[in-house]
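Q: Please design a sequence for this.
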């Protein structure tokens, strides 16, 4: 059996550090926010090159908080992609705004900046690009358009910890960036967690209150907000893992290179098209194949945990059948959702396993 991701294999390599981190929190009982969270926020802002980092309960909450903090709410439109994890659009809907879906670029499968202008109306307030699979979106034209039209930009970097665009870390290019620490992400907690990064001190201050009941003091609440705090055990686990993240990302890039070298000359398969604008951190290694569902079934029958990210575009989800949204034509999104196939990739993944995946994929493609 070769899983898509193996969190137990990672735990084995850092067991002592993790066990000590969890024990430390249980001993000092700072279970919610507290010193571990503050330290993690400092360390992650150092890692991500952002001035401020505000921890919260999940990546989804991080998008909600960032949008609210930047003044996005009912009546506003937010331009994003349908080719993403559901939460990107869900967060926009949660704040009462309307997601407006534009198509992705057929090579990168990321937001196509040339589609933005036509989607802008007088209600447009924000753009949420997604650094999907760990690959940086072409941010320069997006930031130029945002500036010209007075829009805010929230980068969904949930899959892209450590990725860069023209030398700058993702999350620091827009007005705010969000990260998810869902266990399977490149930096994963042992439960739910997320954070917002920003260079804006006022936004950071507001976010610290908004995640914790609008608090300005133990018994003082300035506004009705929400409870979305990072817990101490998650912060401690993330602190134990953060020093390993660069090495893990490098290993992912190395594995991606190996896949590409092995699969390059095969017919009937399109490999990830890596732009040269930045560094991809390969949260996922995604190929495109026709007959995707048959190939996926054949791989799974041989014990290979391939996956699909994502088989149903957000605008075609049942949740959006009866909910306010808007979209332009999305032919690339719709086609990609039938062709994408994610191959196993994680730092502890070995060359022997990679050969097995490649052999099984070659066999399936030939069949
Ligand atoms: C994982 C993910 C999220 C949501 O993060 P959670 O921590 O699971 O709430 C949002 N956007 C994208 C692109 C993701 O992959």
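A: Design:
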């Amino acid at each position: 059996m070769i899983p898509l991701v193996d969190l137990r294999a990672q735990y084995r390599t850092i067991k002592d550090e993790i066990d000590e981190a969890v024990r430390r929190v249980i001993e000092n009982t700072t279970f919610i926010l507290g010193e571990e969270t503050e330290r993690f926020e400092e360390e992650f802002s150092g890692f991500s090159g952002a001035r401020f980092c505000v921890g919260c309960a999940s990546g989804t909450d991080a998008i909600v908080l960032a949008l609210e903090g930047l003044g996005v709410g009912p009546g506003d439109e937010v331009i994003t992609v349908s080719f993403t994890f559901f939460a990107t659009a869900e967060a926009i809907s949660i704040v009462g705004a309307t997601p407006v879906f534009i198509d992705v670029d057929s090579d990168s499968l990321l937001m196509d900046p040339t589609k933005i202008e036509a989607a802008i109306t007088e209600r447009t307030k924000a753009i949420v690009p997604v650094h999907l699979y760990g690959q940086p979106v072409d941010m320069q034209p997006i930031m130029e358009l945002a500036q010209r039209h007075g829009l805010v930009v929230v980068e969904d970097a949930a899959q892209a910890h450590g990725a860069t665009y023209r030398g700058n870390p993702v999350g620091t290019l827009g007005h705010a960036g969000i990260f998810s620490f869902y266990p399977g992400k490149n930096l994963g907690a042992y439960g739910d967690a997320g954070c917002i990064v920003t260079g804006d001190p006022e936004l950071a201050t507001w976010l610290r209150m908004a995640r914790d009941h609008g608090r300005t003091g133990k018994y003082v609440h300035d506004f009705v907000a929400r409870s979305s705090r990072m817990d101490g055990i998650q912060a401690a686990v993330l602190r134990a893992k953060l020093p390993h993240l660069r090495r893990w990302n490098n290993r992912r890039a190395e594995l991606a290179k190996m896949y590409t070298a092995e699969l390059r000359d095969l017919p009937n398969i399109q490999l990830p098209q890596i732009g040269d604008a930045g560094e991809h951190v390969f949260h996922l290694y995604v190929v495109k194949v026709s007959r995707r569902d048959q190939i996926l079934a054949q791989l799974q029958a041989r014990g290979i945990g391939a996956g699909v990210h994502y088989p149903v575009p957000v605008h075609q989800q049942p949740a959006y059948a009866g909910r306010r949204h808007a979209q332009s034509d999305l032919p690339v999104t719709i086609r990609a959702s039938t062709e994408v196939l994610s191959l196993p990739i994680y730092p502890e993944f070995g060359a022997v396993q990679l050969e097995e995946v490649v052999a099984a994929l070659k066999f399936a493609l030939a069949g």
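Q: Thanks. Anything notable?
A: The mean pLDDT is 97. Residues 58-60, 84-85, 87-88, 130, 156, 158-159, 180, 182, 192, 194 surround pyridoxal-5'-phosphate (CB under 6 Å).
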